[in-house]
Design goal:
heterodimer; A: 258 residues; 10 helices; elongated; B: 263 residues; alpha/beta; four-stranded antiparallel sheet; 10 strands
Chain lengths: 258, 263
């Protein structure tokens, strides 16, 4: 019994300590965040690595999610003779929830894990140490460009995901199930609010991006310099990144839509 | 001989383990100084302390008379530009090719034109014999080549000293010969201060002017090669001779074997 309490206590303390280190890590990162804008090539490279290379998965997933929404929405709404509302429903669910959340989840798996592995390997091969020895600050040179790139890219990816999703919903509802084309769009434009839906969705996305970037970079930084250590760290990025996104989504939704 | 690096009463520990215990040594300018000792004596740690990547618990490290651990971050970075370090693995940036790796410190720290950078880089690569390999990526290099590229990078800014971290580990005899010749040549032609941390006894003794042998956080022998070779300290004799048993026992501490077998 005592032993169990002790184990729980130890686990709790080590968690708190890790959270503290992550906080310090983020704090150390803040003053360097303007730097990537001076070294635009560093930033563009990371935007390409994390953003452009994530496009295929985001485009495909967006299209399919939208198509499913169209199908499911139609099946429910047709019973109430209001199948034209399927456009509104698709757009709202994508803008408010699915766009930011699913994008962030896919991004953690596709780019977050890669960032962790990259940083972990840079540490284990002494590249970070070598940068310091060459009087180049790794926080500015390695961490800041990646952080800024993630925060810029994730909201854009979420919007692209949403656009493709609406297209998918349109294809299914109008193209396949025969919902009226004009009603689909006019209902949607009438019911989607710029501030409530679009802006709030983007804000969510930015918050998720910050979370994912901190988790991925911090796990890479903390990874023990062995192949086992790096692989565990990558797993932790995916688990903590995804769970964190879902938990934050609940909090943000409660704050925004209540 | 004027000291370049002075280490005074340095104490450093990792957790409970004492790595250095009141360590003092002097590294003279323009010479090759070897720091030897078995694995785990903290030789790499010593280099990181000299470069200010780690902080000692007490004592100080003076480089050019400046206390490394009292410098501001800016001043420390300034100091590091006058230091080159060759890492064990080479530590090349994996997303840049050979040319860009050597050019990296020049691009970061100077405002030289691309043409001037190209000249310097080719000159440094020529010095390590890899001018022809400039387009290769780090993953295409052998371990020895990676170390030579890293050496070219370490001297790109014409530092006053180069710190070598286990430069010979895991190298074939030819590569070892090449590295030895390079270290000696660079030391001689550029007037560098070289600190070579290693446990490859014969290789190091063939180029060192000055030797320190460390054991358990202390200096157990020092002086020129002759003096260290003739040391009658039992530990130094075991280390230089590569004897399996001696002050460092062959057996990890254990109860008597008879007892364990129940005899």
């Amino acid at each position: 019994m005592i032993r169990m309490l002790r184990a729980i206590g130890r686990w709790g303390l080590s968690r708190l300590r890790a959270a503290g280190r992550a906080g310090l890590f983020l704090f150390g990162l803040l003053p360097a965040l303007a730097y990537p804008f001076w070294r635009i090539r560093l930033l563009l490279k990371q935007v390409y690595n994390t953003g452009t290379l994530s496009l295929p998965i985001i485009l495909t997933a967006g299209l399919f999610v939208g198509m499913v929404l169209g199908l499911q929405g139609y099946n429910v709404l047709v019973d109430y003779n209001s199948e034209e509302a399927v456009g509104t429903m698709t757009a709202l669910s994508l803008l408010r929830e699915l766009g930011p959340v699913v994008t962030a989840l896919l991004f953690v798996g596709r780019a977050g894990s890669a960032l962790t592995a990259e940083i972990g390997l840079m540490r284990s091969t002494e590249q970070l140490s070598a940068l310091e020895m060459m009087a180049v600050d790794p926080v500015r040179f390695i961490f800041a460009p990646r952080f800024v790139a993630v925060v810029l890219v994730v909201p854009l990816l979420a919007l692209i995901f949403t656009a493709l999703g609406i297209l998918g919903g349109y294809l299914v509802a109008v193209g396949w199930l025969g919902v009226d084309d004009g009603a689909f769009w006019s209902q949607m434009t009438a019911h989607v609010d710029w501030q409530d839906d679009v802006v709030n969705g983007v804000i969510k996305s930015v918050v998720f991006a910050v979370w994912v970037a901190v988790v991925a970079l911090f796990q890479g930084e903390e990874a023990p310099p062995t192949s086992e250590g790096v692989s565990y760290a990558t797993t932790r990025t995916v688990v903590q990144g995804s769970l964190g996104v879902l938990a934050l989504d609940f909090v943000l939704t409660a704050l925004m839509f209540n | 001989m004027q000291p370049h690096i002075e280490i005074e009463h340095l104490t450093f520990r990792r957790g409970e383990r004492i790595i250095f215990d009141d360590l003092s040594l002097i590294i003279p300018r323009g010479q090759v100084t070897a720091v030897m000792g078995p694995s785990g004596t903290g030789k790499t740690t010593l280099l990181k302390l000299i470069a200010g990547q780690l902080r000692p618990e007490s004592g100080r490290v003076l480089v050019d008379g400046e206390d490394v651990h009292r410098l501001s971050r800016r001043a420390l970075f300034e100091l590091r530009r006058r230091m080159g370090m060759l890492f064990q693995s080479g530590a090349l940036l994996t997303d840049l090719n050979v040319f860009d790796n050597v050019a990296f410190p020049l691009r970061e720290h100077t405002r030289l034109s691309e043409a001037a950078i190209e000249r310097i880089v080719l000159m440094k690569l020529q010095a390590v014999g890899l001018r022809g390999a400039r387009h290769l990526m780090p993953s295409e290099l052998s371990g020895g080549m990676a170390r030579r590229v890293a050496l070219a990078r370490a001297i790109a800014l014409d530092p006053a000293m180069v710190l070598y971290d286990e430069p010979f580990v895991g190298q074939d005899p030819i590569t070892m010969g090449v590295l030895l010749k390079l270290i000696e040549k660079l030391n001689h032609s550029l007037g560098l201060t070289s600190v070579v941390v290693s446990h490859d006894v014969e290789e190091v003794l063939s180029i060192a002017h000055q030797v320190y042998v460390l054991s358990e956080g202390r200096v157990v022998a020092q002086g020129n090669v002759e003096a260290v070779r003739n040391s009658d300290d039992p530990y130094v004799r075991q280390f230089l001779g590569g004897l399996p048993d001696g002050p460092v026992p062959f057996h990890y501490p254990a109860p008597p074997f008879r007892e364990e077998l129940g005899l």
